[in-house]
Amino acid sequence: MRSAELKKGIPAKASKCVTSPDLSVNVAGIKMKNPVMTASGTFGYGEEFKDIIDLNRLGGIIVKGVSARPIKGNPPPRIWETPAGMLNAIGLENPGVDVFINEKLPILRSYDTAVIVNIFGYSLEEYVAVTERLDGIPGIAGLEVNISCPNVKAGGIVFGTNVKAASELLTALRKATKLPLIAKLSPNVTDITEFARAAEGSGCDGLSLINTLLGMAIDVRCRKPRLANVTGGLSGPAIKPVAVRMVWQVARAVKLPIIGMGGIMTPEDALEFILAGATAIAVGTGNFINPRATLDIADGLASHLKREGIPSVRDLIGQVIVA
Amino acid sequence: MPPTKLHQATVVLHQEAGRGYFRIVLKAPGLAKQARPGQFVMLRVSENQDPILARPFGIAAVKSKQYIELFYRVVGRGTALLATVERDAVLQVQGPLGNGFPAPEKGTTPLLVAGGSGFPPLLYFALSMRHPLYMFLGARDKECLPPLRAIKSCREQAEKVYIATDDGSAGTRGFVTDGLAAFLDSRNDRESFVIYACGPRSMMAAVSKLAAERGISCFVSMEERMACGLGVCMGCSVAVRTGGYKRVCKEGPVFKSSDIDWSEQVVLPALHRK
Lengths: 323, 274
Ligand SMILES: Cc1cc2nc3c(=O)[nH]c(=O)nc-3n(C[C@H](O)[C@H](O)[C@H](O)COP(=O)(O)OP(=O)(O)OC[C@H]3O[C@@H](n4cnc5c(N)ncnc54)[C@H](O)[C@@H]3O)c2cc1C
Ligand SMILES: Cc1cc2nc3c(=O)[nH]c(=O)nc-3n(C[C@H](O)[C@H](O)[C@H](O)COP(=O)(O)O)c2cc1C
Ligand code: FES
What we know:
The complex is a heterodimer.
Chain A: H1 2-6, E1 25-27, E2 30-32, E3 36-38, E4 60-62, E5 79-82, E6 85-88, H2 97-109, E7 114-119, H3 124-134, E8 142-146, E9 150-151, E10 157-158, H4 163-176, E11 181-184, H5 192-201, E12 206-209, E13 213-216, E14 218-219, E15 224-225, E16 231-235, H6 240-253, E17 258-261, H7 267-276, E18 280-283, H8 286-289, H9 293-308
Parallel strand pairs in A: 3-4, 3-18, 4-7, 7-8, 8-11, 11-12, 12-17, 17-18
Antiparallel strand pairs in A: 1-2, 5-6, 6-16, 9-10, 13-16, 14-15
Helix pairs in contact in A: 3-4, 4-5, 5-6, 6-7, 7-9
Chain B: E1 6-18, E2 21-27, H1 29-34, E3 40-43, E4 55-58, E5 61-63, E6 67-73, H2 77-82, E7 90-97, E8 109-115, H3 119-128, E9 134-139, H4 148-157, E10 160-165, E11 172-173, H5 176-185, E12 193-198, H6 201-214, E13 217-221, E14 237-239, E15 245-247, E16 254-256
Parallel strand pairs in B: 8-9, 8-12, 9-10, 10-11, 12-13
Antiparallel strand pairs in B: 1-2, 1-7, 2-6, 3-4, 3-7, 5-6, 13-16, 14-15
Bound molecules: flavin-adenine dinucleotide (FAD), flavin mononucleotide and FE2/S2 (inorganic) cluster (FES).
């Protein structure tokens, strides 16, 4: 795959037509039947979607953020709709890692899809605790580390916006688990490639980007913020160009495979991320708008490959032509 | 796989129903067959990304196991766009969602309390039961009461329908809760009453207080902004008395009123009560 990724230029069109294109990919050592995943926090623990789509058809499921202890979340209102997007300040509400392992994971495990557990904490110790707890539990393909959390023990500085803090965190987590480790980068930084390099230097196996962009909305009549938390994360099609740009920059800066996300709703959106350098993609807010979006994208990728005579989706990774 | 919750529904009827309400009937057999009173749907009102999120609406009736009926008021961009949708259009709709009203037990007398545009799910509930029931409809003024055809259905179904408006332009002057309190205090068969309320939060908080003071059990159908309607985004949470939050779209929208933490300050303005 590496060689295909590095190959420059347009892949030669197959002379005969491609009848069953190869959608399989390998991200950070995780084998997936197709590159389509669900983004953390937009798909719960999978069970809510089982009446809507066949979960076995997904490349992978990245579950809602899990922490060492249960988290209550922020007061409402927690969401606000924006042009082609939404702001959220859920506050990472979750039942904690023990409930996840005992009640959610057994259901997920029964499906033929890669389960990636998104983890977070509010101190280095909390991140390590949840990582150690998940290490060695069967049915987990890898961990995705949400580094966009404040370190309450260090004056609230956000791990993901300080290169030193991010490196320390990821290095500690590398020691705490043998599972594939994927760092989920924050877009709320000046130069995202610094963080990608820090993750690579810390021994991570892959990168996810992007998390939500920090935003705010105000009710002009009562002069109050729309969200009880005042600020929130912007997601959805509104952020897609920012995400594509960041994937492109990071793909050129590091060798790690990338899971691209940010506003993906259609097969064409997914292809943009793949061409920019993503090996896999994740659908977030798109799940709320079209609950079948993931499957529509997987089908659309296959038809695109057939139509264009490209044998494998891997032939497209990073193949954007920049003069 | 169990019956799907994602449907493509055809608009078979869409008309102004009076008093600023629209009535829309959708053909969605898969949805209609599963629906129970108190459940809701998430309706996509636009095919493009403006607005991007679906809108929640309570199911007001199920007809011939094929059709669902909704009533809505135009309060913002989404409902304004919905009002332009023509007959035969196909809309993406998810449902039925949420838990619905618990069926009233034998021997109980349901009291249905609707504030503003909170009447649709209660209408479905009323139409679905054979219990003798009473209805209390309240609004700011006459023009914000349910449309006449809905009130007519209520009258056919209930022993009596009590109407109150804040300004006295229809029914008695005052809050719907004033009429409810007077009714409760005039009766000596209070033990049999169970209250079901849907409307603005302030109204439901008042109904909840009334019920608690008199030891009457009470259920409320809550409204919050929603993104997914499926229980995955955790965006629609309301604070509960035991601490923490519950999702309106999943554990709700119907809750025991004593479970809700009514002290939690809520910024959501109840404009739709207009
Ligand atoms: C479970 C549930 C059932 C509902 N059933 C009905 C119904 O049967 N008929 C009906 O007319 N309306 C119903 N609503 C309210 C309806 O969803 C909103 O009126 C609608 O989403 C407004 O969309 P908009 O784009 O027109 O307004 P926006 O521009 O988004 O907002 C305009 C106004 O509507 C209020 N609003 C927006 N979203 C909601 C919401 N989710 N709940 C309450 N108020 C909201 C806003 O606070 C604002 O004051 C229900 C809401 C919920 C949660
Ligand atoms: C409601 C909501 C909840 C989210 N929760 C999490 C979370 O728990 N952990 C995390 O790393 N990212 C979380 N995200 C971010 C998404 O996983 C994703 O990175 C981001 O939304 C961009 O993708 P999108 O535009 O496709 O939604 C959340 C996003 C939304 C909209
Ligand atoms: S609307 Fe998403 S959890 Fe309720």
